[in-house]
UniProtKB/TrEMBL annotation:
Organism: Methanobrevibacter ruminantium (strain ATCC 35063 / DSM 1093 / JCM 13430 / OCM 146 / M1) (Methanobacterium ruminantium)
UniProt superkingdom: Archaea
Coiled coil: none
Gene Ontology MF, one: transition metal ion binding
Domain HTH dtxR-type intervals: 5-66
Record keywords: DNA-binding, Transcription, Transcription regulation
Entry protein name: Iron-dependent repressor
Family that this chain belongs to: Belongs to the DtxR/MntR family.
Gene3D superfamilies attached to this UniProt entry: Iron dependent repressor, metal binding and dimerisation domain, Winged helix-like DNA-binding domain superfamily/Winged helix DNA-binding domain
Keyword DNA-binding: yes
Length: 217
Protein backbone atom coordinates (compact mmCIF):
# COMPACT_ATOMS: atom_id res chain seq x y z
CA UNK A 1 0.00 0.00 0.00
CA UNK A 2 1.33 3.44 -0.94
CA UNK A 3 2.25 5.71 1.94
CA UNK A 4 -0.06 8.68 2.53
CA UNK A 5 1.99 11.85 2.11
CA UNK A 6 0.89 15.04 3.86
CA UNK A 7 0.80 18.42 2.13
CA UNK A 8 3.44 19.61 4.58
CA UNK A 9 5.86 16.86 3.55
CA UNK A 10 5.16 17.51 -0.12
CA UNK A 11 6.01 21.20 0.38
CA UNK A 12 9.36 20.31 1.96
CA UNK A 13 10.26 17.86 -0.80
CA UNK A 14 9.13 20.29 -3.51
CA UNK A 15 11.31 23.03 -2.01
CA UNK A 16 14.32 20.71 -1.79
CA UNK A 17 13.79 19.84 -5.47
CA UNK A 18 13.55 23.52 -6.41
CA UNK A 19 16.75 24.62 -4.68
CA UNK A 20 18.85 21.46 -4.83
CA UNK A 21 20.37 19.29 -7.51
CA UNK A 22 21.61 15.73 -7.83
CA UNK A 23 24.90 16.79 -6.30
CA UNK A 24 24.15 19.49 -3.71
CA UNK A 25 22.56 19.93 -0.30
CA UNK A 26 19.96 22.57 0.55
CA UNK A 27 20.63 24.43 3.80
CA UNK A 28 18.22 24.67 6.71
CA UNK A 29 18.39 28.45 6.35
CA UNK A 30 17.21 28.29 2.73
CA UNK A 31 14.31 26.01 3.65
CA UNK A 32 13.36 28.21 6.60
CA UNK A 33 13.24 31.37 4.47
CA UNK A 34 11.39 29.77 1.56
CA UNK A 35 8.78 27.99 3.69
CA UNK A 36 8.45 30.70 6.34
CA UNK A 37 9.11 28.20 9.13
CA UNK A 38 11.44 28.58 12.13
CA UNK A 39 14.87 26.91 11.67
CA UNK A 40 14.31 24.65 14.69
CA UNK A 41 11.06 23.32 13.24
CA UNK A 42 12.74 22.79 9.87
CA UNK A 43 15.48 20.73 11.53
CA UNK A 44 12.89 18.54 13.27
CA UNK A 45 11.10 17.90 9.99
CA UNK A 46 14.34 17.08 8.17
CA UNK A 47 15.14 14.45 10.79
CA UNK A 48 11.66 12.99 10.29
CA UNK A 49 12.07 12.95 6.51
CA UNK A 50 15.41 11.20 6.88
CA UNK A 51 13.85 8.54 9.12
CA UNK A 52 11.19 7.93 6.46
CA UNK A 53 13.88 7.65 3.77
CA UNK A 54 13.03 10.70 1.68
CA UNK A 55 16.25 12.65 2.31
CA UNK A 56 19.82 12.46 3.53
CA UNK A 57 20.36 15.04 6.27
CA UNK A 58 23.69 16.33 7.54
CA UNK A 59 23.61 18.82 10.46
CA UNK A 60 25.05 22.26 9.57
CA UNK A 61 25.14 21.24 5.90
CA UNK A 62 21.56 20.60 4.89
CA UNK A 63 19.42 18.02 3.14
CA UNK A 64 19.64 16.06 -0.10
CA UNK A 65 16.78 14.15 -1.76
CA UNK A 66 17.08 10.37 -1.98
CA UNK A 67 15.78 8.57 -5.08
CA UNK A 68 12.46 7.94 -3.30
CA UNK A 69 12.20 11.54 -2.14
CA UNK A 70 13.14 12.84 -5.57
CA UNK A 71 10.39 10.79 -7.21
CA UNK A 72 7.76 12.35 -4.93
CA UNK A 73 9.26 15.82 -5.35
CA UNK A 74 9.25 15.54 -9.15
CA UNK A 75 5.62 14.44 -9.07
CA UNK A 76 4.36 17.39 -7.02
CA UNK A 77 6.62 19.83 -8.91
CA UNK A 78 5.20 18.56 -12.19
CA UNK A 79 1.65 19.13 -10.95
CA UNK A 80 2.50 22.65 -9.79
CA UNK A 81 4.16 23.69 -13.03
CA UNK A 82 1.59 22.12 -15.31
CA UNK A 83 -1.15 23.83 -13.30
CA UNK A 84 0.60 27.18 -13.75
CA UNK A 85 0.67 26.53 -17.50
CA UNK A 86 -3.04 25.63 -17.48
CA UNK A 87 -4.02 28.63 -15.37
CA UNK A 88 -2.16 31.05 -17.66
CA UNK A 89 -2.84 29.58 -21.10
CA UNK A 90 -6.42 28.38 -20.60
CA UNK A 91 -7.89 30.47 -17.77
CA UNK A 92 -5.85 33.65 -18.37
CA UNK A 93 -4.98 34.05 -14.69
CA UNK A 94 -2.64 36.99 -14.01
CA UNK A 95 1.04 36.11 -13.74
CA UNK A 96 1.33 37.40 -10.19
CA UNK A 97 -1.40 34.99 -9.04
CA UNK A 98 -0.21 31.83 -10.81
CA UNK A 99 2.13 30.50 -8.12
CA UNK A 100 -0.27 30.88 -5.19
CA UNK A 101 -3.19 29.41 -7.14
CA UNK A 102 -1.13 26.43 -8.32
CA UNK A 103 0.07 25.84 -4.74
CA UNK A 104 -3.55 25.71 -3.58
CA UNK A 105 -4.50 23.16 -6.25
CA UNK A 106 -1.46 20.90 -6.64
CA UNK A 107 -2.01 18.69 -3.59
CA UNK A 108 -5.54 17.70 -4.59
CA UNK A 109 -4.97 17.27 -8.34
CA UNK A 110 -5.36 13.59 -9.21
CA UNK A 111 -2.91 11.82 -11.52
CA UNK A 112 -5.77 11.18 -13.94
CA UNK A 113 -6.70 14.87 -14.09
CA UNK A 114 -3.05 15.86 -14.47
CA UNK A 115 -2.72 13.50 -17.45
CA UNK A 116 -5.83 14.99 -19.06
CA UNK A 117 -4.49 18.53 -18.61
CA UNK A 118 -1.16 17.49 -20.12
CA UNK A 119 -2.93 16.09 -23.19
CA UNK A 120 -5.03 19.26 -23.53
CA UNK A 121 -1.93 21.47 -23.33
CA UNK A 122 -0.13 19.21 -25.86
CA UNK A 123 2.64 18.04 -23.51
CA UNK A 124 4.30 21.33 -22.48
CA UNK A 125 8.06 21.45 -21.80
CA UNK A 126 8.12 24.40 -19.41
CA UNK A 127 5.90 26.41 -17.08
CA UNK A 128 5.29 30.18 -17.53
CA UNK A 129 8.50 30.88 -15.59
CA UNK A 130 10.44 28.75 -18.13
CA UNK A 131 11.22 26.09 -15.52
CA UNK A 132 11.29 22.54 -16.88
CA UNK A 133 8.16 20.49 -16.22
CA UNK A 134 9.37 17.06 -14.99
CA UNK A 135 8.33 13.98 -16.95
CA UNK A 136 5.26 12.09 -15.74
CA UNK A 137 5.44 8.77 -13.89
CA UNK A 138 3.55 6.77 -16.51
CA UNK A 139 5.57 4.02 -18.13
CA UNK A 140 5.49 5.24 -21.73
CA UNK A 141 8.41 5.92 -24.06
CA UNK A 142 6.83 9.06 -25.52
CA UNK A 143 3.87 11.39 -25.10
CA UNK A 144 2.43 10.03 -28.34
CA UNK A 145 2.35 6.54 -26.80
CA UNK A 146 0.47 7.97 -23.80
CA UNK A 147 -1.94 9.89 -26.01
CA UNK A 148 -2.74 6.82 -28.11
CA UNK A 149 -3.11 4.45 -25.15
CA UNK A 150 -6.69 3.38 -24.39
CA UNK A 151 -6.21 1.37 -21.19
CA UNK A 152 -8.34 2.20 -18.18
CA UNK A 153 -6.41 4.73 -16.14
CA UNK A 154 -6.02 2.35 -13.19
CA UNK A 155 -4.32 -0.19 -15.49
CA UNK A 156 -1.55 2.15 -16.65
CA UNK A 157 1.81 1.17 -15.18
CA UNK A 158 4.18 3.64 -13.52
CA UNK A 159 7.96 3.78 -13.87
CA UNK A 160 9.98 2.47 -10.94
CA UNK A 161 12.88 4.86 -11.61
CA UNK A 162 13.49 8.61 -11.90
CA UNK A 163 13.89 10.52 -15.15
CA UNK A 164 15.80 13.77 -15.60
CA UNK A 165 15.78 16.19 -18.51
CA UNK A 166 18.80 15.97 -20.79
CA UNK A 167 18.97 19.76 -20.49
CA UNK A 168 20.00 19.30 -16.84
CA UNK A 169 23.23 17.62 -17.92
CA UNK A 170 26.45 19.58 -18.24
CA UNK A 171 28.69 19.74 -21.29
CA UNK A 172 30.58 16.45 -21.60
CA UNK A 173 28.04 14.42 -19.58
CA UNK A 174 26.44 11.30 -21.03
CA UNK A 175 23.01 9.73 -20.66
CA UNK A 176 20.63 7.18 -22.19
CA UNK A 177 17.38 8.53 -23.66
CA UNK A 178 14.41 6.73 -22.12
CA UNK A 179 11.56 9.15 -22.80
CA UNK A 180 10.74 11.65 -25.56
CA UNK A 181 8.22 14.35 -24.75
CA UNK A 182 6.00 16.12 -27.26
CA UNK A 183 4.01 15.49 -30.40
CA UNK A 184 4.87 13.68 -33.63
CA UNK A 185 6.98 16.71 -34.56
CA UNK A 186 9.29 16.15 -31.58
CA UNK A 187 9.61 12.46 -32.44
CA UNK A 188 10.31 13.29 -36.09
CA UNK A 189 12.97 15.80 -35.06
CA UNK A 190 14.69 13.13 -32.98
CA UNK A 191 14.53 10.57 -35.77
CA UNK A 192 16.10 13.04 -38.21
CA UNK A 193 19.19 13.32 -36.01
CA UNK A 194 19.26 9.61 -35.20
CA UNK A 195 17.93 9.75 -31.62
CA UNK A 196 15.44 7.17 -30.39
CA UNK A 197 14.56 5.70 -27.01
CA UNK A 198 17.65 3.78 -25.91
CA UNK A 199 20.09 6.10 -27.68
CA UNK A 200 23.23 7.07 -25.78
CA UNK A 201 23.89 10.80 -25.95
CA UNK A 202 26.82 13.00 -24.97
CA UNK A 203 26.27 16.69 -24.35
CA UNK A 204 28.40 18.80 -26.71
CA UNK A 205 26.58 22.12 -26.24
CA UNK A 206 25.79 24.03 -23.07
CA UNK A 207 22.12 24.08 -24.06
CA UNK A 208 20.20 20.93 -24.96
CA UNK A 209 16.51 20.13 -25.56
CA UNK A 210 13.93 19.93 -22.76
CA UNK A 211 12.00 17.12 -24.40
CA UNK A 212 14.56 14.32 -23.96
CA UNK A 213 14.79 12.51 -20.63
CA UNK A 214 17.38 10.12 -19.24
CA UNK A 215 17.51 7.70 -16.31
CA UNK A 216 19.73 8.42 -13.31
CA UNK A 217 20.04 5.97 -10.44
Amino acid sequence: MAREISENIEEYLETLYKFGSKDSYVSTTTLSKELGIAPGSVTQMLKKLEDIGYIDYVPYKGAFLTAEGNKIAQKITRKHRILEKFLKDVLNIKDENLHAQACAMEHSLSDEAERAICHMLEHPDTCPDDNIIPACDFNFESCEDCLNDHLDFDDIEERDFNLFSISQLSKGDEGEVLFIRGSDDALAQCVRVGITVGSKVKIEESESPNFLFYHSK
